[in-house]
Each structure stands twice: as structure tokens, then as C-alpha cells.
Amino acid sequence: MGLKIEEVKELEPKVVEEKVQSEEEIDTKNDDGIDAEKEMNAIKASATNLVNLVSTKASDIDWEAGTPVPYAALCKTFEKIEATTKRLEIQEHLTTFFVQIIEHSPDNLLETLYLCLNRICPEYENLELGVGESLLIKAIAEATGRKTSKVKEELTKWGDLGKVAKDSKSTQPTLVKPKPLTIPAVFSKMKSIANTNGQDSQERKIRDIKFLLTACRGDEAKYLIRSLEGKLRIGLAEQTILISLAQSIALKDPGYQNLSKTLKAEELTAAADIVKSVYSEVPSYDIIVPTLLKVGVKGLREDCKLTPGIPLKPMLAHPTKSITEALDRVEGQTFTCEFKYDGEQDGTTKIYSRNLEDSSMKYPDVLEKLSSIVKPDTKSFVLDCEIVAWDPEKNCLLPFQILSTRKRKDVKESDIKVCVCLYAFDLLYLNGESLLQKSFTERRELLYNAFQEIEGKFAFARYMNASNVEEIQAFLDESVKASCEGLMVKILDGQESRYEPSKRSRNWLKIKKDYISGVGDSLDLVVIGAYLGRGKRTSVYGTFLLACYDPDNEEYQTICKIGTGFSDVSLENHFKFLKEHEIPEPKTYYNYDKGAKPDVWFEPCQVWEVKTADLSISPIYKAALGKIDPSKGVSLRFPRFIQIREDKKPEDATSNDQVADLYRSQFRNE
Amino acid sequence: MFEARLTQGALLKRLLDSVKELVTDANFDCSETGISLQAMDNSHVALVSLSLRSEGFNPYRCDRGFSLGVNLNSLNKIMKCAGNDDIITLKADDSSADSLCLVFESPVNERVSEYELKLMDIDQEHLSIPETDYDATILMPSAEFQRICRDLMVVSESVTIDISKDEIRFTAEGELGTGNVKLKPTSSIDKPEESITIELGQTVSLQFSLKYLTNFTRGTPLSEQVMLCLSDNMPLLVEYKMDIGYIRYYLAPKVGDE
Q1: Distance in Å, alpha carbon of B253 to nearest chain A alpha carbon
Q2: Residue A6: its pLDDT value, please?
Q3: In angstroms, rounded to a whole number, what is the distance separating the alpha carbons of residues A372 and A109?
């Protein structure tokens, strides 16, 4: 059954880079965390735009009905989308393309959608391509007869392997040009690459990639390589794809052409709404797309419903900076405050993290416990809850950092060192019925009726129905003392209290301790290295390597990579300044992990103030090595650049002892 | 009904060995006149063409033309179960072949083993290869060609072949240095398999990927001599002739090195 998690914090260091990329994208185009109202307006605008088009003109590339969609047609659409930052235009290009597919080759719609999403299966199935940059470089080199060193050189120059592949002039001509690629051919090869494992899997993957590459024409190689890298980077958000799916199906509805202009726009807007809401309950295109093609938008809600076993996307809370801000929002409504536990949000039988990753393997003990908390009348259910680390001796909660030390896979119940307690705060599905449309008061009542608390194993989230700032402040202090992250404020009754999967809604507000001014640790760190930028950050440094100072050993110890908090201008300035301080080899007094070498090294020359949400133990960073863990260092989670500390010399940077203290202070909430 | 019995089963093993590195899946086309296979490598740079005449088998029976789609890796696994001296018989139902039956008979005792290999549908383009008059045709010992390819691989990923009336030169240039091998025509009446001959219409100079060439030299055990045919702007032909037929490899020349 479905589960989710509120605040899954991924471990360092991968996060940094992903973050960099997603932030770049949000700059111009809409993605996650959208404001509901803005979003609605965008959908309406797009609907009106489509209605007013003289005709939904076919895209430039046409193909015979009933035959597979040429990959070139998709690439052409990608090209048009990449060329603009206007959401209306992107939506129009994509919808037009989908309509063309529905008319000519509806069987290919699902595969097309996955290629647009740069995915090969529903998110919760968790199948990844497993193609790294070096593998792609090798495949490009072999397919074109060029040297790998040459390909790498070009990659550094352009920062986009897709472009390098496209521009690579082959020195090895083919005997005959292979047949043009089609969408099903590309998709099935990608799926087979993802499923390739075991002996010689790298070789076999390279062979498949070469096959695709040699068949590419024109721009196809660019998008093919980017897709394989998992970085399509054309600014196509999933929301946009969902809306285009809805619009294209609605446009092809037999009744549509007879409607008036106003009604047409309404129809398209409603379709987008339905498809989006169904997708958040059943996040599987494998189910939704065939159903849409069969019954259209109107029959979708009837045929696709929240189903235990298919994890839905959890509802997300809107962050607030102060209690008063939260209060302003809920004024005049009945509302409740709940402890916001710091753990992994979750469901039942199968446990999914917020990204819908299946984590059942990690929590066999949770599965085992379930039978004891379920009351006899409860047959099937989907819970929204948080898994929190629990100290059975002191009967208290432990910080998230402890939870994250649990093994990720194949956990045996007998070896478990970190005990967990499940805190339930919402019930979405009970005994065959979806509860999403019910009010929170009703859902909470059903939740309390269907389950029973067991100390240290299963509990309901603590709540209080408060109404003024002082009460909430007291409750917030209490929650922080109990090692919680802060409070959730939720509306209890009426329309606005329904569970809206995947929405970052203003109906749920979070007051996190970090958001409250004064909290959140700030450190002064030395820049000792940098990674060359990709995408928009090509030709400047994209990410930097920071270090703290160990005065006893007179060495700099690496602490984190940082790529967040920079404006384009500041990146350029950093580049200009640091370029002058590049050194060919790291200083002997740099303590770093060989596996986390930056592209360039700097002399210790500048101190940066950095804010972080948290500190965690890391095997690849060296800060405070030996102080907390004999072989591992401490690293920062979600570090953010604040400013340059001109007043500080590198030796005045935060010391390793201070880092260790900051780390320890996280556990001193009681 | 299709049935083909080959007394020297080891030949089939060697043939498979010379194809399976280049292509993973291929169709065996069976007809009254024999068995043939044509397939391109994944990158469409090289092509292998194999032909076995019906007279080479005893007996050979094929009532009508059909294709056997085979995963060569799987076939190779099964072929490893055959002894080197075994007599190998291939059998299939030509009207609805979904598997290929392989029978291995030991010549010394009564041991008979039988395997069935599942077949697959392979969508393959068939190229018609026109007969060409090549600018240069070389016959040389196949082991010598294999050695040259292997040696020059040390220096570079590609080799330039220059042919004039009285000399064949193989040259490789790489980061560590250069290497070249020169051969002159020779003939020996006692040992014809060691002779080198050049038939030249006009001089030729072409560059090829050594990775592919070394791949082709897996055909060396099939024949004492190898034939190389070259023309400007044409694919190279490398042929190993056998009593029962031939295996031919084609390779597109490289253009302008970086």
C-alpha cells in the first residue's frame, strides 16, 4: 500500500548537484512547489490560447498513420520547447505534438510521454538507466571513431555531452545509413539498457547506445545523449506534460468541435484539472494513458482511483517564516496544530519515501508491527505518516541523522540497531474507499477509529487546536524540545481541508524551527576547489569545494560542496577572482578524499559565510575527522552561500572543533 | 523439413566464433542450395556474410527457403556442449520453426546428445552486395594478416594499407610512436599456403579501424589464406575460403583522422 514521506533528506553529496540543476530550471520555468492559484491561471491561459489557434497545426514532421512515430518528430518538438522560455508556447508545442500522435499512432502516446519525462517507468518502480558520463563518452568515441580524450576535451568546452555527440564528425562512415529511429525503438532500447546488468553489462550498454547513436540524424543525437544522461534540460516540467496530455485528449473528444469558444476553454481547463488530480492519486502513466485513450477525460476519474499498492504523492506543506504569517493564512477557519516529526514520511506494507522510492526493504520491523496496530475492522488502508528514530530506553525521539544511519536494503529484523516509531497523521484510504475528498476532521476521526497506539511503535501525531500566537508559540517550543522539526498547521473543515496529493498547498502550513530567524547554523569556510559548470554555468565554476580549518594540524579539511545561493553575477565574480588563485596540485595541507577531487584547486584565499540546515556524518568529507567518528568526517546538508567574509583570513575560518560542537548540539534538544 | 549433417562439427564451432563478436543476433537463411547468413554490426560499419553450400553437408535437405533467427551467444553456449570430433546435425521444421534442434554424435562411441535452441524474430535489412572489380586484390597467409593486425594494435586504433605493384605496407601512427610492416610478393611451389600475391589495377591507400580488422581475423582458423580486396571509396572485403563455402567481411574505410 502507498506511503509517503514528508521531508526525505537525501544524504550528501549527490544532492548538491541536483539542487543546482533544479534551481536553475525553476528560474525560468515552472516546476515543483507551484503556487496553486498561479498554476490555475496558467492552465486557463493555455486553454484560451489553444482555443484561439486557428487550427492545431501539425508539427513540421509528418508520418503515415498507423506507423511508429519518428524520433525526429519528438526531437523537433524538444527543439522548439528548448528555444523558448514562455510557458504558453511550450504548452502549445507539446499539445500539438500529442494531438498528432493521438491522430496517427495512439499506441505510441505512452512511450512519447515517458521520453518527454525522461523516465522509463512509473516513479515508484524505481528503475534507472544507470548510464554514467564516462560510459556515454566511451560510446560516443566508439560510434564516431574519435578518441575518448578528444570527446572529453570537447565536453569541458561545451558542458553538454549532447552537443558534443551531435557535433562529432564521424571518422568512421557506415556501410549503409541505418533506418531512422522511431519512438518505440528508442524507448525499448532505453528500457533494455536500464535492465542490463550482470556480466559485461557495461559493454552491452555501450553496444546498444552505439546502435542508437549511429542511427541518429541531425539533432537527434543531442537529445538522445541528454536523455540517456537523465538531463534533458529543455525546461519541460512534469506539470506541463500532464496538462498537454489532458488538453490533447480533450481536443480529440468527438463533442469538442461543436462547443462554443468559451465552453471549449472551460472544457480544456477542466480536463487539465481532472488529469492532474487523478495523476496525484494514481501516479502511473502506465494506467492513466491507456485509460484516457479508451474512455477520454470524463471517464478517467471513474476508472482510475487511489489504489493500495500504488503510492500516491503526499500532500506538501507551504513553508512559513513566522507564526503570525501562518495565522494570517488560516484566520477565520477552524484549524489545528500538529507536531512535525523529523523522519521519513510513510504508508503501509510497502513503504515509499516522498519521492515514491520503495523503502520497504529498509523497514521490515515497521511491516511486522503493522498487524498489532490495526483494529480488527480495518482491512485495507493507506496511511500518511512519519517514521522517526526512537530510543526505547529513554522513551524519546531521536534526530533524523540517526534514522539515516539505518541500512537501506535487505535489513534483517534481528540486526536492527535503530528503533523506529510510526507517527500517523492522516488516513487516505480505508476498506476500499478513498477518503481524499473528506474533511480533515472526518479523516482524523476515522484514523483514530481504525488504529490503536502502542508506545514506542505507533502513535498519532500530537495536536492541539489553538487559536492565538502565544499558545502556538508554546506548542512550537514544546515540539522543538521533543526533537520535532516544528509544527504543521492544517485547516480542519470544509473544501480546503481535503487531502490534495502532491500539492504544496497553503492549506497545510509548516512552521519549521529552521525558518524561525536565529536558527540555522552559519559557518565561515574556505574555498579550496571548484567543479566546472554545466548547462547554464558553462565557462564558470558551477560548484565549489569548501573546507574548515584545523589549527592543531594546520590543515584544511573538506566539509561540503556548494552550488546554491549564487546569482549569475556572483558566479562570474567568483570565477574572475578565484581563477587567479588556481593551483595545479592541492596543497599538502589539504585533507580531502581521493574520491571527491574537484576539477580545479585553489590556494586558501577567501572565506565564505555559509548557512546550513543540518550537519551529518559523511564518509567523503574530512571536517572534524576523529572528533565524532574515527574514520568519517562531518558534512553540511543543503549548504547555502550567504556572503564573502572579507574581514576573515583563511586561518580564521570555522575550526574543526567548532564543527564538531555544532554537530553535537543537534542532539542536545532535551 | 530441414536437415543438415556436417561430419566435421568443429567447423561449425569455428564459424560461430568468427561471427559472434561482430553481431549478436542473426538470421540463418536456409534454401535448397545451402545455408547463408548476412548481418551488420550494431554501428552499421561492418558486415559479415557467410555461405555454406549444400554439397558440404551429408545429407542436406531443405524443401523450401526459410530463416532461422538465432541469438548467437545462446547458440555458442550450446555449441560448447559438442565435442571437437562430433558430427553435428541441424534440424528444424521449415513451416513453423520456433526452435532449432542440434544433434551431436560422437564418432567413437554411441553417445548422442540433442539440444533445442529457441528461435527469435529478427528484423534484418538484407543488403545486396554487387560484384565489384577491385583496384587491388591480395592473397596472403591468414596467420600473417592476423599477426600484423595484432602487432599494430599496440601503436594505434587504425591502420593505413598502401598497395603498390611490388609492395604491401601496413602503417600505424599513435601517441606512443609509429609502426609499419612491409610485405613483398613471394611464391613457393612446395608451400602454396605461404605465398603472397598482389593483383593491381591501380595503387590504393586506405585507412581502417584495427578493432574491426582484428575482429575479422577470428576467421583465421578457417583458412590458410586470406584475400583482401580494396578500392578507393569502397568497403574493404576480407574473405576466408573454405571447402564448403566462404566467410566474407566488409568494412567501411575511415575518413580524415583527427
Answers
A1: 7
A2: 32
A3: 45
Give the gap in angstroms from C-alpha B155 to the nearest C-alpha of chain A.
14
Q: Name the more confident of A340 and B222.
A: B222
Q: pLDDT tens, A129-140?
A: 778 888 999 999
Q: Tell me what pLDDT residue A480 has.
A: 75
Band the pLDDT of A420: cuts 50, 70, 90. confident
Residues of A with Cβ-Cβ distance to B45 under 8 angstroms: 172-175, 214
Name which of B23, B38, B43, B124 to mutate to probe chain A: the one with the most chain A Cβ atoms within 10 A of its Cβ.
B43
Q: How far apart are CA A344 and CA A388, in angstroms?
A: 7
Provide the Cα torsion B225, B85, B50, B185; round to 10°: 0
CATH topology of domain A521-665: OB fold (Dihydrolipoamide Acetyltransferase, E2P) (2.40.50)
Query: For A191-220, b where at least 16 C-beta lie within 10 A, e where not — what string?
Result: bebbebeeeeebebbbbbbbbbbbbbeebb
Contact at 8 Å (CB) between A126 and A358? yes
**Pick from A245-249, A295-299, A422-426, A664-668: least confident:** A664-668
Chain B residues with CB under 8 Å of A178 CB are 44
Report the top-level CATH class of B136-251: alpha beta
- Class of domain A24-124+235-303 as given by CATH: mainly alpha
Q: Using an 8 Å Cβ cutoff, are A351 and A363 in contact?
A: yes
Nearest to A145 among B24, B42, B254 (CB): B254
- Enter the ipTM: 0.82
Rounded to whole angstroms, what are the CA distances from A513 to A12, A28, A319, A613?
21, 30, 11, 10
* Residue in the structure block whose three cell numbers are 534483517: A412
Q: How confident is the model at residue B32 (pLDDT cuts 50, 70, 90)?
A: very high
Interface of B with A in 80-109 (CB under 8 A): none
Torsion sign across C-alpha atoms A494, A499, A503, A508: positive
Catalytic residue among A163, A340, A503, A512: A340
- The matching CATH number, chosen from 3.30.70.890, 3.40.50.720, 3.30.2320.30, 3.70.10.10, for B2-118 is 3.70.10.10
**pTM for this one?**
0.70
pLDDT band (50, 70, 90) for residue A336: confident
